[in-house]
Amino acid sequence: MKRVFSGIQPTGSLHLGNYLGALKRFVAMQDDHECIYCIVDLHALTMPHDPAGLAGATREAAAGFLASGLDPERCVVFNQSRCPMHTRLGWMLACLTPLGWLNRMTQFKEKAGKKRDGASLGLYGYPVLQAADILGYRATHVPVGEDQKQHLELSRDIAGAFNRRFGVDFFPLPEPVIAGEATRVMSLRDGARKMSKSDESDYARINLTDDRDTIARKVRKARTDSEPGVTWDPEARPEASNLVAIYAALADTTRQAVVDEYASARFSDFKARLAELAVEKLGPVGEEMKRLAADPAYVDGVLADGARRAHAIAGPIQAEAEEIVGLLAP
Question: How many CB atoms lie within 10 A of CB 273?
């Protein structure tokens, strides 16, 4: 069985982009793959954060995983910091990763901005830790969004570098899984920007914790344009096309099928139907998240059990990697 690994940072509320770009696909893969899903709380340390809120954000992210349909009996759900492999293997891989490879990472340039010299080593080396996240379970497939494809390619390069350096065929080269009609969900206020937890306007995103009325209101108020009809044209109509993609992903259909179905409809009527669909699909997720938030002991138990199962997989891989590089196995 193919082994899948992927993760989400516990920074801010999970939103529609996380659901369509990751969680919905996580759920779809759990029946046919050995799945390991991680709340990557160590990655959250690479940017300024509230220490008092990190544990709660981790629980909320775990609740989002479970509320979206992940079954902790069929997949491993845990938070990254509970498994020591991630940092131990991360250091070994960092010692094999040329600076030139990291200098090409566009996400560091975007996050560091003009303050690059003041950015942390953690932010710069983020992709190496991400490689350890994946390779430490010898994952064969990684569901990712378009914006993470470059990082996964680096993970493949690092796996190859390890294998060549030590003359082994130890780490598989993980394959990206980029699927669905909305692998990159854009802001509801600006079709040129990705939907983000950090956007100042709450109307730019649909949070998974939003109630049904709020979901419907945000869809109705989503920015569109003055062009008539429902079409798919990301260049000329980015906001309208974003809504078409969201509809297709929520309805498990194609963008073209959506355009064909609503070809003669007014865009306002299409938005009204999208609001109904979003409420139907996302309303129960938010309600289950709120129920789980009232039972933190259960969520903590899921994470603790997941950490034990994750360590049972990663521990032997870590020990073998340490032996390969010449360290004494624990």
Answer: 16
pLDDT in tens, 93-146: 999 999 999 998 888 877 777 777 888 899 999 999 999 999 999 999 998 877
**pLDDT confidence bin for 330, thresholds 50/70/90:** low
pTM: 0.92
197 is catalytic: yes
Report DSSP state, residue 204: G
Q: What is the DSSP letter of 184?
A: S
Cα angle 126, 132, 135 (rounded to 5 degrees) comes to 140
- Per-residue pLDDT band for 13 (boundaries 50, 70, 90) equals confident
**Mean of pLDDT values over 294-323:** 97
- Separation CA 63–CA 66 (nearest Å): 5
Q: Which two tokens stand for residue 85?
A: 């492999």
Give 76-90 as a 3 state SS string: EEEEHHHCCHHHHHH
194 counts as catalytic = yes
Catalytic hit among 111, 218, 271, 290: 111
Q: Is 271 a catalytic residue?
A: no
Task: List the catalytic residue out of 194, 221, 271, 281.
Answer: 194
Query: What tokens appear for 34 in the block?
Result: 């050995």
CA–CA dist 204, 194 (Å, integer): 9
